[in-house]
Amino acid sequence: MKVRGRGCGVIRDVRHKAAPLPRVPRSSYRYDLDGLRGIAIAFVVIFHVFVGRVSGGVDVFLLLSGYFFLGSQLRYADRDNASINPWWPFWRTLRRLVPALVLVLGVTLAVILAFVPSLQRIHVANQVVASLFYVQNWELASQGADYGAASASVSPFQHLWSMSVQGQFYLFAIALGIAIVLIRRYRPELNSMQLATPVLAVLTSVSFFAAMLWHFIDQPVNYYSTFTRFWELGLGALFVLYAPRVILSARTREILGFVGLFMVLSTGLIMDGAQTFPGPPALYPLIGACLIILGDGRVSVFLASPFMRWLGDIAYPLYLWHWPLLIVGLAFFELDEVNVLFGTAVIAVSVVLAWLTNKYVEKPLQQRGKRPVFREHRTAAALEQLRTVPAARWRAVVGVAIVVVAASMTTTPQIFYNRVLESQDATLDPRLHPGAMALAGVPVPDAEPAPDPYILADTVSPAWAKGCMSVIGDDPDELPPDRYDPDFCTFGDLSGDREVYLVGGSHAEQWMAPLDSLGRQHGFRVIPLVRQSCPAFIEDLDGIFSDECARFNENVAQRLDEVRPDLVISNSTRPLLEKGSGIDEVPASYPTLWDFLENRAIPFLGLRDNPWFIQEGGAPWMVSQCYDEERDLRACGLERDLFYAPQDPAAGELGARPGMLAVDTSNWFCIDDFCPPVIGNIYVYRDGNHMSDDYALSLAPLLGEQIRMVLR
């Protein structure tokens, strides 16, 4: 085949010339997808406020992030003069995302510090820092936080997990784009579509199957994990590569648009994504979004309308603002649930704040220049702008202010932690706060209960605070005292000639404060061998405790066998909530420890557990905070027979064993038939089932009498 070129009469033979390799499509900007982003976030807000379920809008948002961001990186990588300098896309992304984020975090934190003491928690402060550094999803996973419906006890920064996933993916996208630029320097015949497709296809597939598997292993981690969320962004990235090449009739594209929009909008009505996403059910809204990308017609016209595009413009700040407003509002107004008036006000204020943030923060601070090409340097031009252009100087000043505010917020966890330390170091006046001594007839004056119930919620007992307690994630084969110098994890009288070992979980460890005090007074040492969520046993006969707990207890038993202490103390009862029982009982596993100790003639003191205040969903009920807010003992307490069996379930078995004593502590927590949140002007509980150190210390005389009976 011969073709005559225009104007020059040159004849070219093109019979054997290869067709050009496909590149990342440079299609015109999809304004309808801006509208899709807006409507997706609008549904997120509506469902968060009024429904309390996941709408699937965030999943669509993540897919579109992969579609837009990675598409832009790959298109740039296809340029023959592309630069390998990653600073520009990183800087552009920072300028687009961080100012609004810092504004929302700063304002929310200021409001919490000024007006909402119930949210002044260390874990909330840690989430502020995690959000700033785009690792909030991992912080929530490490805290074991389920993605729950809105309530006054939920973190106001919980929703920022998705921004962290998005930010981490952006780093991957920038790195992938730079890698492709480098490869094309040496293999220019390759393009980004060829190089990116196998990487994205493999990672997206692996992520999808990981999300499917991890749903059955740990759904909360599955929900937050970047690795199991990657496939949603990866699917969007693959779509930007191949969707423009799909040729469909106009009628088909219009039908796809309607079907896709229906699927996106109906997701929250037919499924609860918090329980299943990002597993296979997340395909439903994402396939819907993909159909919209493939579609056209009236749906695309609607999504590209001025209002929908405006909604897309404010989608990011709308997402940032709505959740803190909702949670802080519920806490401030002490609302148990969202009513129509409050919910409508939250949405209206969120929209106004989002519009103002978009107009006066986002847009003015965005990077608008084109991306530099190979060997193009802009540093000198930027410095010249700072010298000559007032707007540039103003942006620089605002940028410095953002950095200063962000840096100041990173100190928040330490500030909150110092408050906790000060609270733990403070000693209550026993004349004003007699605590458990009120049960023995000591007068109780008219005084405010102490300590601060909101700071109290972040406190832990001495062994945990000192690092002498094994926590979830620690090596179960390592006993905490072995980490340090011999006496570091020894409490009480370090020179005492008798040894008391405390074994079990956090409900045993909470007795460390009075044991430490009693040890100093009566000349015995106290060594804790305790692990979070791990009661003491030799064999798990209940089938509810972890393998790590069983391994830890094997090491505890070996240590007890070696040292043969003068006394072992632990809990003798607990409610088996794992089996649906809320009444205290002796788990089948506990007597295996008692047999072990009896065979070695080691004395044992078994403490009946304190009441557990558990909400219907299984979360602890913050009873001390309840009383501070309600000032109603009955409303914030518990009827005795709702937790305690009529008699101490351990009394018979322990009473029949020599050198063992069952201590019925129920009268230490309940007055007649009622277990109040405050006794003797001291808050009894730090949360819903653990004692406050101050109340535990007030129990020292009562506990000391029981210890003397066994040691004698």
From TrEMBL:
One of its GO terms (molecular function) is acyltransferase activity, transferring groups other than amino-acyl groups. InterPro entries: Acyl_transf_3_dom, Acyltransferase_3, SGNH. Pfam families: Acyl_transf_3, SGNH. GO terms for cellular component: membrane. It comes from the Bacteria. Residues 484-703 form the SGNH domain. Residues 31-357 form the Acyltransferase domain. One of its GO terms (biological process) is lipopolysaccharide biosynthetic process. The chain crosses the membrane at residues 35-54, 60-77, 97-116, 165-183, 195-217, 223-243, 255-271, 283-304, 316-333, 339-361, 396-417. Keywords: Membrane, Transmembrane, Transmembrane helix. PANTHER family: ACETYLTRANSFERASE, ACYL_TRANSF_3 DOMAIN-CONTAINING PROTEIN. This is Acyltransferase. It comes from Corynebacterium efficiens (strain DSM 44549 / YS-314 / AJ 12310 / JCM 11189 / NBRC 100395).
